[in-house]
Amino acid sequence: MANSALLTILSKSRNRCRPGLSISAKIRVHDDVKETVELCRRLEKAGLDSLTVHGRTVRQRAEPVDLQKIRAIKDSLAIPVVANGDVRGLLDARRTREATGCDGVMAARGALENPAMFHPEGQEGTPEDCVKDWIREYCIRRVSF
Ligand SMILES: Cc1cc2nc3c(=O)[nH]c(=O)nc-3n(C[C@H](O)[C@H](O)[C@H](O)COP(=O)(O)O)c2cc1C
After folding, report:
1. Quick one: which of 53, 93, 108, 135 has the most CB atoms within 10 Å?
2. Residue 109 C-alpha to ligand 1 middle, in angstroms?
3. Nearest-CA neighbor of 81 among 33, 19, 37, 18?
4. Are the C-beta atoms of 117 and 89 separated by less than 8 Å?
5. Alpha carbon distance 67, 92 (integer Å)
6. What is the residue extent of each domain of the chain?
7. Does the 3-113 domain belong in CATH 3.20.20.70?
8. What pLDDT digit, counting tens, does each position of 62-75 carry?
9. Closest ligand 1 atom to Cα of 111
10. Confidence of residue 25 (pLDDT cuts 50, 70, 90)
């Protein structure tokens, strides 16, 4: 989506939302970090409440996520910024937070693989109980009459 379209959607949503309703957005980074920071500043100015940044460009798939770009964005904004990309466990979450200074991390594939990945004691794999609970709750209870 072009930057101007994103800004238009945001400002129109801001005007229509009742006060107090928060608006967040999620973006990928540009090749040029300055361009990315500029876009994020404009989003913030237009009333964005929080931003999640996936540290890959649109064309990137398996390349390592660029934490320095996320850091540059975080350092340029006052609103909360959430870092995303390659967080597969608690250690990755901590590493990502430290490297970016972000207010939080978001995980997609990691959480699909291991729903217990943010357990306070750190769970490297999906615990057996987690699988049993899921089967009990979603596969048995919800289909029983
Ligand atoms: C099943 C699945 C669905 C996704 N759907 C969306 C989506 O609707 N919107 C979006 O911005 N990103 C979506 N993503 C991308 C993730 O939010 C995330 O940016 C990307 O997977 C990198 O983070 P990860 O390394 O934690 O997986 C999706 C990813 C997965 C695996």
Report:
1. 53
2. 7
3. 37
4. yes
5. 12
6. 3-113
7. yes
8. 999 999 999 999 99
9. 26
10. very high
